[in-house]
């Protein structure tokens, strides 16, 4: 590609140089034509009128014209002067022709029609038949009749072209030197631009590579956080199951055995204490064990959390569902369940049987869930059922870490009327599972 650009630059510069040189050559010829026409009209014309009145002039006229030619030759490089009449006959020649018919009759005819004709003759174009040696400029200019404006004769001037050609060569050399310098400068700038472009492309590629690596690291970090959430859920589930199947069963059997021993007051007190310990462990285990929500939609998981709260507390929260996707990743579904579970438990603990509302909807690329409760009634104390199921909870701090690990946010705010609202936003997709995860 670079070679093609340089070739195009060279071609453009060559055409530019040629056009400038040709324009300069045309300007030189035009200047010579103007100068020759002025001298013919202003200096030769009076002598031409005399020759036309007397085709066989005396020697004095020839001497005066010869002196004029000598003066012009000394100052203006004029080498020879000829005067032709309308019939094409040579009236005067400052230098003798070897062959009169050697001049170009077409140029003479054009001059007789009123044109100024200029021809540059070089050494290769002549064979010694002109009155002067080449190179020279041959200028034909019409001589007009005074007052009438008709062409009555033609003046022909031979101008030494050697100084003109030497000046042209110097000018051409300067033009080509300037063109070459400009071409080198343009080629250099083109190379610099191409080099900078390559550097930019390389830096862009490096930046893209770094960005891809950072994105991969970010995806791995998100995946690690999601895996941590799943591991924690599994650990909590295992702890709850172990408490239920191990110490809880042992305490229950111990309480039954203690109560059946002798019926004494001490035995009954021990049995009550063991029963209370078993109840507390049961409540803790119930809060830690996550119900089977695999395969549920986001709405079904939230409805299950509401239903379990109602079963454990006897308080039925209101539920307002907006548009929700059918499938969400497992970690997001678990997060929604835990938010509703913690929000309702917090509402029950602080406001008792006061009205609670659960709202859930999807907005663009995330799900928003809110748990709002009214303030507790002033004359009514919370009436917890015998199971006191509001106590088993993970805590807001633990829930905040859990939701943050999923790329979401959670906040608890107090309402002006004394109530509270727990609001969380979770993304519809995680790095380890898209929105279509079951």
Summarize the structure in short.
With 438 residues, the protein is of the alpha+beta class.
Q: How many E strands?
A: 10
* CATH class wording of the largest domain: Alpha Beta
Report the portion of residues in β strands.
15-25%
Strand neighbour order, sheet with most strands:
2-1-5-4-3
Q: Please report the distance between the alpha carbons of the first and last residues.
A: 53 Å
Order of helices and strands: HHEEHEEEHHHHEHEEHEE
Rg calculated over all Cα atoms: 57 Å
Helix content: 55-70%
Major sheet attributes:
5 strands, antiparallel
Structural class category: alpha+beta
Tally of helical runs:
9
* Assigned CATH superfamily of the largest domain: PAS domain
What does this structure look like?
With 438 residues, this protein is of the alpha+beta class. It folds into 3 domains: 2-173, PAS domain (Beta-Lactamase), CATH 3.30.450; 246-289; 293-438, Heat Shock Protein 90. 56% of the residues lie in helices and 16% in strands. It has a 5-stranded antiparallel beta sheet with strand order 2-1-5-4-3. It has a 5-stranded mixed beta sheet with strand order 6-7-8-10-9. The longest helix has 84 residues, at 162-245. It is rod-shaped, with a radius of gyration of 57 Å.
Layout of helices and strands:
Elements lengths: L1 H52 L5 H18 L1 E8 L4 E4 L11 H8 L4 E5 L14 E9 L6 E10 L1 H84 L1 H13 L5 H24 L9 H16 L4 E4 L8 H22 L4 E8 L2 E8 L22 H10 L3 E6 L5 E8 L11
Helix pairs in contact: 1-4, 4-5, 4-6, 5-6, 7-8, 8-9
Which characteristics define this entry?
single chain; 438 residues; alpha+beta; Beta-Lactamase; Heat Shock Protein 90; 3 domains; five-stranded antiparallel beta sheet; 9 helices; 56% helix
